[in-house]
TrEMBL record:
Gene3D superfamilies noted in UniProt: Winged helix-like DNA-binding domain superfamily/Winged helix DNA-binding domain
Superkingdom per UniProt: Bacteria
Entries under InterPro entries matching the protein: WH-like_DNA-bd_sf, WH_DNA-bd_sf
Protein name: Transcriptional regulator
Length: 226
């Protein structure tokens, strides 16, 4: 069934109206009843209901059958927040970054937050890290984890030191303006993950933007940093 020609904006508006009617009704409603409230053709309501049911915002309701004949299809709004709307996680990240930056010892607190997150990460990476893990296995595991998180990592070595280069920052715009908050979170994340794995290697420090397209995490054997 096709909806009569209309603009995308009009179609979205009509769909919201159908959903509004169902949300304000204490009881399930039939297609005809919804159409009567809105003053539109039942086929228009049926079209939008198909979309709303597909999106999980509306559900069918089975009524007890009374008397002969098939009971009309009844619908009600699913009682939940609209999961089809846009997300603004960057705004949330900016709010949290500003809140951290405004506190005393912002970098220390951001580091602790990142470490706590890293310790709780339940990685499903393969191969599973054995206990105790070798330094090489732990570094490879760290690189794999950072890759899954979107950091585009690369294992490096310089002057006998093991490093992990990060070629992408999932929070680039925030990191450029809130380096003292975002970068310690990333450092803490790596440190916390290594601690949770019982790795014999630690993430000593993170140098941000050593090149326009590179941050570098410096690693050290744990005996060397005690």
């Amino acid at each position: 069934m096709k909806l009569p020609p209309t603009s995308i904006g009009e179609s979205a508006s009509r769909r919201r109206e159908v959903l509004r009617v169902l949300r304000t009704s204490p009881d399930p409603m039939s297609i005809v009843a919804i159409a009567d409230v809105l003053g539109v053709h039942p086929n228009t309501v049926r079209f939008h209901l198909d979309s709303l049911v597909g999106d999980g915002q509306v559900e069918h309701v089975e009524l007890d059958r009374k008397g002969p004949g098939r009971p009309p299809l009844m619908f009600r709004a699913v009682r939940q927040m609209d999961r089809g709307g846009t997300r603004h996680y960057r705004l949330l990240a900016e709010i949290l970054a500003v809140a951290f930056a405004g506190e005393r010892d912002a970098s220390t607190k951001a580091l602790a937050a990142g470490r706590a997150w890293g310790q709780k990460l339940d990685s499903s990476l393969e191969p599973v890290l054995t206990d105790p893990a070798s330094a090489d296995d732990a570094i490879d595991h760290l690189v794999n984890m950072l890759d899954e998180l979107g950091f585009a990592p690369e294992r490096r070595a310089a002057d006998g030191e093991q490093q992990v280069g990060l070629r992408h920052c999932p929070f680039l715009e925030l990191a450029e303006n809130r380096t003292t908050v975002v970068c310690p979170v990333h450092l803490g994340l790596m440190q916390g993950a290594m601690e949770a794995w019982g790795a014999p290697v630690a993430v000593d420090r993170l140098d941000a933007f050593v090149e326009p397209d590179l941050c570098v995490a410096h690693l050290a054997l744990q005996d060397a940093v005690k």
